[in-house]
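The pair is quoted verbatim underneath.

:::
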Amino acid sequence: MRIELKAQDGHTFSAWKTGPADARRGLVVVQEIFGVNRHMRHVCENFAQQGYAVICPALFDRAERDAELGYTQEDVQRGLALRGKISEAQVMLDIEAAAAALPEGLPRGIVGYCWGGTIAWWGATRSRSFQAAVGYYGGGIAATRAETPHCPVQLHFGEQDKGIPLTDVEAIRTAQPRAEVFIYPGAGHGFACEERPVYSPTDAMLAEQRTLGFFQKHLT
């Protein structure tokens, strides 16, 4: 269901909330550059079925309220434009508000995809609200790879991602030797999204298994 949250700077925004009443772990799920659309709600429900209390903040609300995009090239350009109107500091304020809205007392993790993959990395390095962070094909991670994570990190990349060359992935590995970094042979950007042409069910399932195992280990 949709809820309203307030960031520390007074900004109010919507978020998707789901999960069982007896959840044992909390999770902030971070959107791609397409908003909290049908795919992101599907991701949230999958984690909820695994017993997580989930909140997915609508980060685009700072630029355009309730923006939900598809996956055409036009949607990509619109998503990039919306992202460009929101600062990294504002993003982190909204992430902190989402973390604070999870049920009190639960261990908290963060997982993000595309733009959200980079933000999940920042959740590890720029916040102390999380006990584990998982990022999928975050294009901005390489540029901020020297930041110090405050929790365990797991990262997923497609070998054929046209926006994230393997040299970037190797640079991340070198800078963060303690992070778990997985490369999926033949997979492209967005391989875990069932609505993209590059969707790879086999790779998506393996990445999900690794993600769930990682959170089960560290969110205790």
The chain is about 35% helix and 20% strand. Strands lie at 2-6, 12-18, 25-30, 52-57, 108-113, 132-136, 153-158, 180-184.
